[in-house]
């Protein structure tokens, strides 16, 4: 029998977006409830997720929270092309490779990207942008040498793209729209060609971009940055 799935989400949230990518790619029907993040969470929602964050997943009545755990759970509960289920050294190795890639992207590169966006001065932003490029080149680029076009030589989307896709959409879109220094993306084609090719394949994938609203994300990010500066 098909699982009963409800996703508590907000389409502007990159973490919640991960759950959408997983559900879309696994072709799992689900109901969604949009949580308004501009107001305090209701008692009803806090009973579902005491942290008050999105996403939360209700799966046959069981609540699962934290986007990475939600996506991993869905991939494990519904074995597919996304990632091999465990149980053999080969599968464990493939899972370890995905986990290492995702960890590297967030800790080494995306953290610097974030710093560049939220920098207090142009100089700080430029320094973080240069560090982002350096880390991307050193740490992420080699891990994408066999992308075809997806992680690990895969012709189909993998858990690596499920967990990073919503951030890649933002990474490429924001500087193009005047958010963050242009240097964040200007030299990607020459300095990190593997990453650039992979990232463009990722953002074109319908499971990745189905809830993406560039205009909304750009304008919300501009508002957040302006508030922070004020
Ligand atoms: N570590 C969490 C982060 C989720 C998160 O930060 N969600 C934000 C929206 S993007 C949220 O719910 N914020 C609510 C608030 O801060 O009040 C995850 O991966 O699920």
From TrEMBL:
Gene Ontology cellular component list: cytoplasm
Gene3D superfamilies xrefs: 1.20.1050.10, Glutaredoxin
Domain of life of the source: Eukaryota
Domain GST C-terminal: 91-230
Domain GST N-terminal: 3-82
Stated family: Belongs to the GST superfamily.
Name assigned to this protein: Glutathione S-transferase domain-containing protein
Protein species of origin: Hypocrea atroviridis (strain ATCC 20476 / IMI 206040) (Trichoderma atroviride)
């Amino acid at each position: 029998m098909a699982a009963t799935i409800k996703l508590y989400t907000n389409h502007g949230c990159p973490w919640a977006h991960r759950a959408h990518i997983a559900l879309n790619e696994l072709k799992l029907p689900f109901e969604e409830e949009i949580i308004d993040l501009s107001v305090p969470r209701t008692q009803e929602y806090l009973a579902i997720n005491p942290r008050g964050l999105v996403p939360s997943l209700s799966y046959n009545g069981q609540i699962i929270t934290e986007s990475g755990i939600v996506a991993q759970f869905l991939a494990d509960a519904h074995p597919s092309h996304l990632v091999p289920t465990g149980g053999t050294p080969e599968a464990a190795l493939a899972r370890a490779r995905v986990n290492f890639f995702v960890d590297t992207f967030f800790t080494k590169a995306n953290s610097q990207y974030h710093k560049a966006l939220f920098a207090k001065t142009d100089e700080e932003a430029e320094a973080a942008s240069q560090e982002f490029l350096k880390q991307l080149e050193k740490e992420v680029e080699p891990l994408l040498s066999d992308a075809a076009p997806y992680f690990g030589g895969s012709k189909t989307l993998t858990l690596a793209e499920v967990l990073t896709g919503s951030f890649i959409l933002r990474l490429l879109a924001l500087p193009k729209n005047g958010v963050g220094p242009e240097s964040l993306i200007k030299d990607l084609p020459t300095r990190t060609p593997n990453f650039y090719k992979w990232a463009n394949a990722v953002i074109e994938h319908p499971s990745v971009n189905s809830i993406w609203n560039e205009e909304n994300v750009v304008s919300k990010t501009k508002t957040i940055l302006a508030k922070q500066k004020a």
